[in-house]
Amino acid sequence: MAIGKSLSFLLRAVTTGLALAFLYILFVQPSLLRGTGNVVEVKESPAPTPVQAASPGIAGMSGPVSYADAVARAMPAVVNIQTAKVITRRVYPLLDDPIFQHFFGKRLSGTKKEIQTSLGSGVIISSQGYILTNNHVISGADEIEVLLGDGRSASATVVGVDADTDLAILRVAIDRLPTIVIGDSKTLRVGDIAMAIGNPFGVGQTVTLGIISATGRDHLGINTYEDFIQTDAAINPGNSGGALINARGELIGINSAIYSRSGGSQGIGFAIPVNMAKGVMKQIIEHGHVVRGWLGIEAQDLTADLAQSLNLDSTHGVLISGVLRGGPADEAGILPGDVVQTINGQPVNEAQQAMKLISEEHPDAMVQLEGSRQGKPFTAQAKISQRPTAAATD
What is the C-alpha to C-alpha distance for residues 359 and 385, in angstroms, rounded to an integer? Predict the structure, then answer.
């Protein structure tokens, strides 16, 4: 009995000693629990998303080692567009001279007709045969031929165009058409992967890789309505109207223009966001043209000098420089010299922004404009009209 008590006491003493020793090391000498090297704390990235994830690649690396699947999903829906138009060219201007014709008659002409051809790209967005491309690709064409990646071809008809956004809708009568999946350009972030598919220089279907360099690019002087995606994926002549896709193979833009001093790609290309193209496409198909709001005003940016001359404290707002007589703005009492600072409660600081807000309103909608008139606040209610096709005002 005495031996058992002694053994139990000894075990408790040893356990207590070990616990005290552990606490001493933990709080007084924690370095004894570590190895000889420094401990570095790192913040690990979360698990890759399906777009980023990939199986182990070369030499044990992981990451997106190929975008072949995305390209395979999108490429069949990207087509080559060939256009032809008849042009009249002056060859010998002397033959058109009245004196020359007096002696030799009018049988000889100083002009001759030629067929001018050009190349571009397009994207099949519906199995019904609708193709989205740039207006400048097919503008003035007498004949339009669409060539698919599988070797089929057909003549295309023009459903409608919108010169203000440089978009056009074509249609072909071909069965079993491949179509592209339309993405969402609102979710794009600078740094996202982007690939351009088209037919540059007529060499054949080509894919180039880059990233989204910027979004919302405007004031470029390319189109009336601008909200471009900028990318460094190479875009060259012949790429116009082709697809800009994301890493999932979804359409995010229509390749439209490049900034270049040499005529080739210099890493600054522009694409029309697919969300804008989708809205234009729907209206063209449904109405034959794009319906936009219109007030009949001319607006310009408010500079510091203008603000000072109008006795304004800031450059917030846009200056109304002209009002079309009998137009919606004129009937609402808007006057030249007014400074509009908000449209339906939304602040405006640029003429192009004001134009865009007005154009997005449906005809017969009422808009409220607030601003400054001769240094005093004013408010006006205006009824939106439909923008004339060739209007130069908004």
Answer: 10
Cα separation, 242 vs 228, in Å, equals: 15
Write the class of the CATH domain 73-171.
Answer: mainly beta
Across 286-297, b (16+ Cβ under 10 Å) vs e yields eeeebebbbbbb
Q: Which two tokens stand for residue 274?
A: 């697919």
Query: Which residues, in sequence order, are CB contacts of 373 under 8 Å at separation 6+?
Result: 335, 337, 338, 339
Model confidence pLDDT, tens digit, residues 222-258 = 888 888 999 999 998 888 999 999 999 999 999 998 7
- Kindly report, residue by residue over 330-350, the tens digit of the pLDDT: 999 999 999 999 999 999 988
Task: Tell me the two tokens of residue 43.
Answer: 């913040």
pLDDT at 252: 96
For the chain, the domains span 73-171, 185-287, 293-386
CA distances to 6, 15, 30, 92, 347 from 18, in Å: 18, 5, 16, 110, 72
Structure tokens at 275: 């969300």
Whose structure tokens read 């956004």?
165
Kindly give the residue spans of alpha helices, DSSP state H, lying in 139-250: none
388 vs 308: CA distance, rounded Å: 35
pLDDT tens profile 2-61: 555 555 655 566 566 666 665 555 555 554 544 444 332 323 333 344 444 344 444 444
Q: Which CATH architecture has domain 293-386?
A: Roll (2.30)
- DSSP assignment of 73-129 equals HHGGGEEEEEEEEEEEEES-GGGG-HHHHHHH-SSS-SEEEEEEEEEEEEEE--TTS
Please give the full DSSP string across 268-296, using - where no structure is assigned.
-EEEEEHHHHHHHHHHHHHHSS---EE--
CATH architecture entry for 185-287: Beta Barrel (2.40)
Q: How many Cα atoms within 13 Å fall on the side-chain side of residue 147?
A: 13
Give catalytic residue positions.
Answer: 136, 166, 240
Q: What is the pTM of this model?
A: 0.71
What are φ and ψ of residue 9, in 5° steps? Answer: -65, -40
Local structure of residue 39 (DSSP, 8 states): P
Q: Do 73-171 and 185-287 have matching folds? A: yes
The residue assigned the tokens 């207006």 is 135
pLDDT of residue 288 exceeding 50: yes
